[in-house]
Specification:
By secondary structure, the chain is α/β, with parallel strands linked by helices. Helix content is about 40%, strand content about 10%.
Length: about 280
């Protein structure tokens, strides 16, 4: 059974939210004077589909015990998550204006002790799938029916702890755990598969006992449809969605240029980037 396709209006709304995320990333990085544009751009549609279509949330209630959880393995993309949390009323929108400034809770990586709606902290990559498994198991033991989503970078799959979590999640049949791999093919140092090849990813996850789905990570309609199907039709196994993305998606000179993993735009370049993003719809 395939989930009902999204309507044109639903797709347009999610595309609008992805554009909102990218534009806010540009604004916030300008405040910090350095940041991870490209890592956030590649998962903008993933964020949009999760937060604005699939996840069960209540506006202004980050402490609602039955809300769906989202853990950001690639924590350096948090600059794209913070505007969404403000949009959902989980934090004061004015807090965004002090991003990374002294005393502000919003850092380059998310801190669960300071930011409402952040379900686990990040810094060193590779541990959020294990924590997500623990959260999902805790929900099952407590008789709760929330889903736990973990957004992973493909580079962080080189960390062995991910595969320990993958093995146990399948063994325990944790079907409310969903991993989404932002497969943009690049890490800080260049192509992921030049550093330490992670392919064949689909075969690896299948061998570990996971339900594997592949999708264009920038086709927000297809992405949301797959996520809906996984949410609504549990099959006794955890699911991984391999989302094919482009690092820096939306800005031509950043796309697939690993030198832009971390950077900052001067005023002229920023104006050009904003114009390009606004013209991409």
């Amino acid at each position: 059974m395939v989930a009902t396709p999204l309507s044109d209006d639903e797709i347009a709304r999610l595309e609008d939210r992805a554009q909102f995320i990218r534009l806010e990333v540009v604004r916030l990085v300008d405040i910090a004077k350095t940041g991870h544009y490209t890592s956030a751009f590649s998962c903008a549609e993933i964020f949009a589909a999760l937060y604005y279509d699939v996840m069960r949330l209540r506006h202004g209630q980050p402490d609602w015990t039955d809300r769906d959880r989202l853990l950001l393995g690639k924590g350096h993309a948090a600059v794209g998550q913070y505007p969404i949390l403000a949009d959902w009323g989980f934090l004061d929108a004015d807090t965004l204006d002090g991003y990374t400034r002294l005393g502000n809770p919003l850092g380059d990586h998310p801190d669960m002790t300071r930011v409402p709606g952040v379900d686990f902290s990040s810094g060193s990559l590779g541990h959020n799938l294990s924590v997500g498994l623990g959260i999902a198991l805790g929900g099952r033991l407590n008789g709760q029916d929330f889903h736990t989503y973990v957004v992973l970078g493909d580079g962080e799959l080189e960390e062995g702890q991910n595969w320990e979590a993958a093995m146990l999640a399948a063994h325990l049949g944790v079907d409310r755990l969903v991993a989404i791999v932002d497969r943009n093919q690049y890490s800080l140092d260049g192509l992921v598969d030049d550093m330490n090849a992670v392919e064949p990813l689909a075969d690896k996850w299948q061998a570990f006992g996971w339900n594997v789905r592949a999708v264009d990570g920038h086709d927000v309609g297809a992405l949301a449809s797959v996520l809906r199907e996984v949410r609504d039709q549990p099959n006794g196994t955890p699911t991984v969605i391999l989302a094919a993305t482009v690092k820096g998606k939306g800005v031509r000179f950043m796309e697939e240029n690993f030198g832009w993993h971390l950077g900052w735009l001067d005023r002229e370049d920023q104006a050009d980037v904003v114009a390009e993003l606004k013209g991409s719809r």
